[in-house]
Amino acid sequence: GAGVSQSPRYKVAKRGQDVALRCDPISGHVSLFWYQQALGQGPEFLTYFQNEAQLDKSGLPSDRFFAERPEGSVSTLKIQRTQQEDSAVYLCASSLNLIAGDPDTQYFGPGTRLTVL
Amino acid sequence: KNQVEQSPQSLIILEGKNCTLQCNYTVSPFSNLRWYKQDTGRGPVSLTIMTFSENTKSNGRYTATLDADTKQSSLHITASQLSDSASYICVVSATRTGGSYIPTFGRGTSLIVHP
Question: Are B59 and B48 in contact (CB under 8 A)?
Fold first, then answer.
């Protein structure tokens, strides 16, 4: 398809397990964002890539969260030793190129719903 | 701290009626403001985007306004349809040095349209 895809769509993990969430952005999109969306809340920024470079990771809540985009396309968000408070929908968005002053539109994937028991 | 506040938190209207959603922000320096529609279980989809010089933008039955002086925006939905039931999220971006900027999302207004 032509949109942003994410997998898995749903993930149930036991507390303490590691999880890996995948994002396939729209082909050719330079910028890629990860967001965390708790129930009834708006998305909260986690981290941002421009190509393979992680330009901002200020939103990652702890050092248990790690994101990579090694070839500037597919990205993986990894959460180590999951906790119950990590339960949320994790959204990925891509855009052609998000630079200062450029009102580029982000295209969102459907999200991965993570439930930590 | 950059913040985006939306009101009301939730809204129920009858099909065919109009409604207006509000967004106040403190994001600075302002770059642009977007309204997104998020259906349940789906990712947000962009409705409108406005920069500093624009004060109104329409997309079908959706009309967004922006007052950059008072840092307020509204999204007006005309002749609502059942399919308009969704969360509407206001997103404001600031310009940053270094060439990249990070959007600040509001919590959204949950709209329910009843037949």
Answer: yes
